[in-house]
Amino acid sequence: MPDTYNITLEISRYDPESHLSWVQTYQVEAGGILRFVDVFRKINDEQDPTLAWASSCEHAQCGSCGIMVNGKPLLACELLVREAVDQFNTHTFRIKPITIAPVLRDLVVDLEKAYDRVHAAKPYLMKPAPAPPEGDEYRISPETLETYVEATQCINCFCCATACISSHHHFLGPNAMMSNIVRLMDPRETEKKERMDLLYGESGVYRCHTARACSFVCPKEIDISHFLALGKEGKF
Amino acid sequence: MENAVKITRTESYIISLIQKIPILSYYAPSRGWSFLISWGHRLAGLTLVGYMFAHIYTLSLLFHPATFDADMRLLDHFVFSFLEWCVAIPVIFHSLNGGRLILYELFRVRAEEIVIRSMVILGLLYIFIVGFFFIEKTQQISVTLFWSITVTVSLIAFLIVLFKIWMTGNSILWKLQRITGSFMFPMLIGHMLVMHMNYLTGHDSKTILLRMESPFIKGVDFVFIIFLLFHAGYGVFSIIADYIKPGPVLKSLTILVIIAMAVSAYFGIRLIVAL
């Protein structure tokens, strides 16, 4: 396995001032264990300081560095150069911003707009059950927690929503819908009716066609389609 | 939860060959095979909708048996026979994948690798059997017996899905899509099979007209066409709604789909009642 790779990045650019879009090609010599965020930084340092991209934690926890590489939505902070070469079997990578929200500049999208979908699903306990009188905490059995704890690891990177066959107009999106279903499964949530209305509403789970691209691309390896199917089955 | 599909070396080799097709080479590694199967489901469904319109038109020629028989003789040509056999591909793919979706969404069957493998094996077997019957044209089976068995299986599938789904809060149309799908799963597969098993059953006006005198067959065809048109109409609407934002365009297209299905229902039912 080589230590360095000569890779070609074809990156979608967008200038909001002129409203011009184009594809810019960068040739980069990159170490195999460099992440794509590191490659972007290298481009900024060595070739083009104007290339805009987003990241924050760079530990796959904040979800702000979501991009599309050769059509696959993923986190730029997780993808190593050598893994990308292996995974896509090429040294040329077409890089685009995720498609779930308007592009602000180059690879940066308006995550506020994307988050509107999550906010619509109210990803919090709307009416928490009162704490048991004998203690100061609400205890959930390990068996119950096991049924939905995986879904709580979602970081709302919107990779699933970008990959979804149907989430761009009607559907709130896999991650937003899953956050609603998780609260339906959470015994601490008592506001079931509003959640059920949301689940089965016009933008709800029936817009999901079980294409399972959400589960395929999820950087946290959450089987999102499993939870959406539980929503359709109506048993929590 | 396990997302990865475990595949054998042979399957891996076959998949690598299939992935040489450009569109598959793009979407298989970026969205997964289930995504491609979903697209296949849509395309197969749309193909069947087109075939259904053509089929209703062809059957409407039964009002003039001589014209119908002349048209059927045309279908004896190798090219048309081959195309007719090709219809078995979207039929079995759409049916089996519909079954897979119902199992996944309503019965928590998550063993996708087993289900997809079964789909491939059963699908190939079905296409081969239909082709064999198509070439042989010598089989004979009682149509009433065949449909009695098929309708019984369809009713069982229909009732299982109905009881499973009816009390959920899903929209009524969404539920009916699954319910009609479960009913048509054996019916559609059976329809294609029996029509090619007994050659005259689907190609000779006298045989068809004689069969259509039976109230049982009339009833079966009536339910079949209503369920089929609803399923087709909602399926087409579902695809359109994924790409068109709610508004006048979506409304207009929805009305167009309803009209197309209603007109087809009118011609189909008129045929069943009149013959």
Overall description:
The complex is a heterodimer of chains A (236) and B (275). With 236 residues, chain A is α+β, with helices and mostly antiparallel strands. Chain A folds into two domains: 4-109, Beta-grasp domain (Ubiquitin-like (UB roll), Roll); 111-233, Fumarate Reductase Iron-sulfur Protein, Chain B, domain 2 (Orthogonal Bundle), CATH 1.10.1060. Helices cover 32% and strands 18% of the residues of chain A. Chain A has helices spanning 36-46, 81-88, 111-120, 142-148, 159-163, 174-185, 192-199, 213-217, 224-233, and strands at residues 4-15, 20-31, 66-69, 72-75, 92-97, 103-105, 108-109. A five-stranded mixed beta sheet of chain A has the order 2-1-5-3-4. In chain A, α3 (111-120) runs parallel beside α6 (174-185) and α6 runs antiparallel to α7. The longest helix of chain A is centred in the C-terminal third of the chain and has 12 residues, at 174-185. Chain B has 275 residues and is mostly helical. Chain B folds into two domains: 1-31, no CATH class; 34-274, 3 helical TM bundles of succinate and fumarate reductases (Up-down Bundle). Chain B is built from 13 helices and no strands. Chain B has helices at residues 9-18, 22-31, 33-60, 65-75, 78-86, 88-107, 112-136, 143-165, 172-197, 199-203, 205-211, 215-243, 248-274. In chain B, α7 (112-136) runs parallel beside α9 (172-197). The longest helix of chain B has 29 residues, at 215-243. The radius of gyration of chain B is 20 Å and the shape is globular. The N and C termini of chain B lie far apart (56 Å). The model of chain B has no long low-confidence stretch (mean pLDDT 90). Classes of the chains: A alpha+beta (236), B mainly alpha (275). Chain A binds chain B through residues 68, 70-72, 87-88, 150, 163, 165-166, 168-170, 196, 199-200, 202, 205-207, 209-213, 215-218, 221-223, 225-226, 229, 232-234, and chain B through 1-3, 26-27, 29-32, 34-35, 37-39, 101, 104-106, 108, 110, 112, 167-171, 174, 238, 241-246.
